[in-house]
Design a protein that fits this description.
Radius of gyration of chain A: 18 Å
Largest interface: A-B, 40 and 48 residues
Oligomer: heterotetramer
Helix content of chain A: 10-25%
Strand order of the largest sheet of chain B: 3-15-14-9-8-7-6
CATH architecture of the largest domain in chain A: 3-Layer(aba) Sandwich
Shape of chain B: globular
Distance between the termini of chain A: 34 Å
CATH topology of the largest domain in chain A: Rossmann fold
Bound molecules: flavin-adenine dinucleotide, flavin mononucleotide, FE2/S2 (inorganic) cluster
Structural class of chain A: alpha/beta
Helix content of chain B: 25-40%
Number of domains of chain A: 3
Largest sheet of chain A: 7 strands, mixed
Largest sheet of chain B: 7 strands, parallel
CATH topology of chain B: TIM Barrel
Chain lengths: 277, 309, 309, 277
């Protein structure tokens, strides 16, 4: 079935409310998929926005949405049986290469694209995972019981784990391993607020660790034609949303600039709509 | 396949269609590096505009339907981009639109001072209630806007036409008489509508949208054919061009340059290099040149007419 | 799926598009027997006409391009066919064209006396230099021809429109005001042109041709949507309808009956039964009816408006 | 390769002149094909007309054309290296069922569609063929050396074989076999002037022999849409051009009526353009 042309209408098969603002919508539909790819979700009469696939089995998948603006509030208010349209999957997804020591650094619902990646790494059992997850507070920690890998949690308010940033833990881990003569990280995957990902990238650069980040920009087509999502010379929906260290090094707009709906480039803090945290 | 166009030397005869990718300097440059001789910027309008809500762009398999709705930062809010473009090593075609002759003139004059190599008047976009369309379906208004803009700019003027014009040859002639240096044809066709039968409503938020890609190629070829017979200025032919053979076809209809938009969906950004390669292979295999095949589908016309472009 | 249409009971809501197959009584009957509620005859003109030389009809894979050129024995030379049709047990829609209001009137009056169930005015065929097109792109001339014909016929009058009209809703309204009992939309789109790059000339002998089939469906849906909003008479929606889902789509846009032409290329003469089956299965699965989904893509319009047709 | 949409341009690879008015054009092109099918031949700037494939190998085929009107005269005047467009193959072709006693009755260049059928029957070696071929005169006998099966020739002028009609021979053969208690014909394939085919059909009917005839009507699309070629309720280009006895029995227009280019039905003699003889 062709799923990347006009929307395929599907029903919400189940809904899981994670917190006052986070919910996952489950869809009973077989979709071809690679961790890190996204779909366009259409709520007829409202709008259409990109969401990462946050859970995937051969005949069911989910998206996890934070209620933030007009669209995402309507999305988390959807109930079982409601009909939405989906197009996709789009984007490149994470590059998965056999590595031993893997870092996963998630911020807020930046956990969404990373979750199926962790599922996959856990199933493949080839690697040891350093898993760091930050959130506003305890109740915003997504998928608390999903993974066998232990997560190191940070919260802004200290309601669970470390009070502070995921990057504190990442830096400390890298330092500890180095000092202990333990094997260092071979690769770090990260998703979360762009400022966080930028910091993770730089920590990785300082320590010569390859890094993959998942970016977010305003999107229209989702398949590399309209130009709405360009970030420097990268087309986020098509070349990305995942970018590796080599590309990130030359990506001037990373953590600095994003285009508004009008096409106007603005500083990221003005854009304000990046990955929910 | 270096090509001369209105006094500017282009690395290839391929043009990036306006509204496709061209949202910043970096991507225009990337498109150029991938074999596009003349990248066109997304149409610049008189005031900031968000465009329509999504869905705005949907692939139909054999083409696309879109109603992006002319988003623009507004011509006065693009200093950063112009600054970046200043040091460029490739030519740029600045597409502009307005809701009145005055607006067109104001935008054109301002944009021209920023140093694009060409200015393209989008008098043909069907996606907005207030903008554009009115000019491109009527010869008098096309003449009015072209001749007014012509007075305030000192770079070559390209008029971009819509296939919705009842007689596109007459519109092209009016533009030529108004001072246009080239014609670009076609903008999207239709408009069309796709209704989702489960949602029971149009898929596009704006309901109607322009059609592009392979499904409109026969319309584009017909339009270029008609325009070629009614003007002597060069034509940028586009609409569904996806392969070197498509390029040959629209060149035989009369195009001097060939625009590519929707094909980026089907063959990626490297589509420009792919088409260039297919085009030059075809020419080599047929022991011929671009100049020789241009307008070849008009054997009745003077060779002089064909060679003049 | 028995359907009432302007007082005539049709076995199904499907209509055979004019110019497709309908060249004699036997084939009209066969089409009817295969699930077409209302077969339409090939357009009948004022004088014998051979049409264009071949190639006249070319498949493009996702639709066709044709310039058959309105061949017709001429309205006065069809006695044998009318005689055969007299004993028929199925309804017939007689499509006619003319080069002037007078010609339309003369043909319509003559044809009406032969007992067709409906007369369809082809004021939209793009394939002839002299015939038809002029009426369908202009509201005044559409009104003139419809109102003149209306006076001389006593069967329901269907006006068949072209998508080339700048505002097809306005044309439809003019036809309704002129006395049309239904609108049929759309005729072929474009026109388009396909150039063979080895032959270096257009493939069609007439060079340009009308586009039909799946590639024009979005245009057809948009036109029916527009017409539905501007008239209260029923609409025969056609243009690329190939499956039951396509039929549902154009019915949601506002069609009361659904025309099928080019789909015969892709699914054979049994396409009518196939579409009927798919359509009724869809309706059953959705626990709904044709009446309920008609115009469903216009939730803002009065239910009364939707049910009136 | 799609060959039934817009014309595929090919070169005339070889030309064989059979007689003052008959020539075969050979094309080096692989075309999928069943005996009895036809292609549309486009001479750019002139016209496009249907021609039966008269010779077929995996990478070469031919059409055999009689110079008759404007188009066919141009066609036989084509030379090696000239470019033409072809679309097809179209139509149903002959139904080939394993039969022991097969009759082939060709009139003039009605031999063209029958020739690849005879080639095939000879290759399959399952049947005995009664092969009757009529022509104006000796020099119009197509493919004189092509078949291993012996042909019974008739000519209008008696310049070779029987002076008279193919139907004379057919009737006589049927009678002889019956009288001699030999096995009768299981199936007759025929192509030639419609009046001849009609006569063959009736002889077959009288003797309860199934028969297949290949009809000819003015054609535009070639694929069953435009209706130019309808013969009663049959669409010759798509349901035919080959029709079997069962259909022929109900086909009122067979040997009576054909549509002119204008769509006007006329008596066959007025139509005048049927299978060349
Ligand atoms: C590849 C990709 C994957 C994504 N995956 C997820 C996911 O898994 N889960 C998830 O919750 N979200 C995800 N998003 C984000 C999601 O698409 C929406 O952007 C988000 O849900 C907010 O949408 P909204 O319409 O509700 O909010 P908006 O109405 O867009 O508002 C949210 C905030 O952004 C600002 N804003 C919105 N649009 C603009 C604009 N054009 N210019 C400037 N400011 C703007 C608003 O002012 C507000 O502060 C993803 C985005 C991308 C690109
Ligand atoms: C399925 C099929 C297979 C065929 N296979 C062969 C083949 O293998 N070899 C072959 O030689 N031919 C074949 N033909 C016939 C061929 O297509 C042409 O009809 C033939 O070559 C004559 O074409 P022309 O244009 O040269 O002659 P025309 O110009 O058509 O003239 C030939 C004669 O027909 C009359 N005529 C032509 N068109 C019309 C019309 N529309 N109405 C009334 N009278 C008309 C003319 O007056 C003239 O007497 C086949 C036809 C069909 C339908
Ligand atoms: C998503 C999209 C946005 C477009 N935006 C514009 C625009 O802003 N200005 C313009 O002149 N044309 C615009 N067009 C039309 C294209 O420039 C081009 O004329 C048309 O798509 C036909 O070419 P194609 O088939 O190669 O895409 C847009 C087309 C698409 C698909
Ligand atoms: C070969 C061909 C011939 C046609 N001839 C006529 C005609 O004589 N009169 C007419 O009103 N429409 C004619 N049409 C237009 C069709 O009736 C129909 O409006 C159009 O093809 C769109 O429908 P479709 O996509 O289902 O074919 C013709 C179309 C085709 C393909
Ligand atoms: S969203 Fe259109 S190019 Fe990325
Ligand atoms: S030639 Fe068109 S239907 Fe047979």
């Amino acid at each position: 079935m062709i799923t990347d042309q006009k929307p395929v209408m599907v029903k919400v098969a189940a809904k899981q409310v994670h917190s006052p603002t986070f919910a996952s919508l489950y869809i009973d539909f077989s979709i071809d998929f690679k961790p890190g790819q996204f779909i366009m979700v259409w709520i007829p009469g409202v709008d259409e926005k990109p969401y990462t696939i946050s859970h995937h089995t051969p005949d069911r998948f989910a998206v996890t949405i934070e209620a933030k603006g007009r669209f995402s509030k309507k999305a988390v208010a959807l109930e079982q049986g409601d009909t939405i349209g989906i197009r996709g999957p789009f984007g490149n997804g994470f590059t998965i290469t056999p590595k031993t020591q893997i870092g996963i650094v998630a911020g807020g619902c930046g956990m969404a694209p990373l979750a199926p990646l962790v599922d996959r790494l856990e199933a493949e059992k080839n690697s040891e995972i350093l898993f760091i997850h930050g959130a506003r507070s305890r109740q915003f920690i997504l998928y608390p019981d999903r993974f066998s890998t232990l997560r190191q949690i940070c919260t802004d308010d200290g309601s669970q784990g470390h009070k502070g940033f995921v990057t504190d833990i990442l830096e400390q881990e890298i330092r500890t391993r180095k000092e202990a003569g333990m094997p260092g990280l071979d690769l770090v995957y990260t998703c979360g607020p762009e400022i966080m990902m930028h910091r993770v990238f730089h920590i990785c650069e300082e320590n010569q660790i390859p890094c993959q980040v998942s970016l977010e920009r305003y999107m229209r087509c989702g398949f590399g034609v309209c130009g709405a999502c360009v970030c420097g010379k990268q087309v986020v929906c098509k070349d990305g949303p995942v970018f590796g260290s080599q590309t990130l090094r030359t990506m001037e707009d990373f953590n600095t600039t994003a285009l508004l709906k009008s096409g106007q480039p603005v500083a990221l803090d003005q854009y304000a709509s990046w990955r929910c945290q | 396949m270096q090509t001369d166009f209105l006094g500017t030397s282009l690395s290839t005869p391929l043009v990036l269609a306006s509204g496709v990718l061209g949202n910043n300097k970096a991507i225009l440059e990337r498109v150029h590096d991938n074999g596009c001789g003349l990248p066109t910027m997304k149409s610049i309008g008189p005031a900031p505009r968000d465009g329509h809500n999504n869905p705005t762009v949907i692939d139909l398999g054999d083409g696309m339907i879109n109603a992006v709705g002319l988003p623009t930062p507004g011509y006065q809010n693009m200093e950063a981009e112009w600054a970046e473009l200043e040091g460029r090593n490739f030519p740029v075609n600045a597409s502009i639109y307005g809701g009145s002759v005055d607006e067109f003139v104001r935008v054109a004059e301002f944009v021209c001072a920023k140093g694009p190599d060409f200015i393209e008047l989008n008098i043909s976009c069907p996606n907005s209630d207030q903008h554009g369309m009115i000019f491109g379906v009527n010869a008098e208004s096309s003449y009015a806007v072209v001749s007014a803009v012509k007075k305030v700019i000192d770079v070559p003027l390209i008029a971009k036409l819509t296939p919705a014009a009842p007689d596109i040859g007459a519109i092209a002639r009016a533009c030529e008489e108004g001072g246009a240096n080239a014609i670009c044809a076609i903008n999207t066709a239709g408009p069309g509508m796709v209704i989702d039968i489960e949602a029971r409503m149009p898929v596009l938020a704006f309901k109607k949208g322009g059609l592009s890609g392979p499904m409109i190629k026969p319309i584009a070829v017909r339009c270029v054919y008609d325009i070629y017979r009614s003007v002597s200025i060069p034509i940028i032919g586009l609409g569904g061009i996806t392969t070197g053979a498509d390029a040959v076809e629209i060149i035989m209809a009369g195009a001097s340059l060939v625009g590519v938009g929707t094909a980026v969906r089907y063959r990626g950004i490297t589509v420009f290099n792919q088409i260039n390669k297919e085009l030059s292979t075809w020419l080599a295999n047929h022991n011929t040149t671009l100049d020789e095949i241009r307008g070849a589908a008009h054997p009745d016309l003077e060779t002089a007419h064909r060679r003049g472009k």
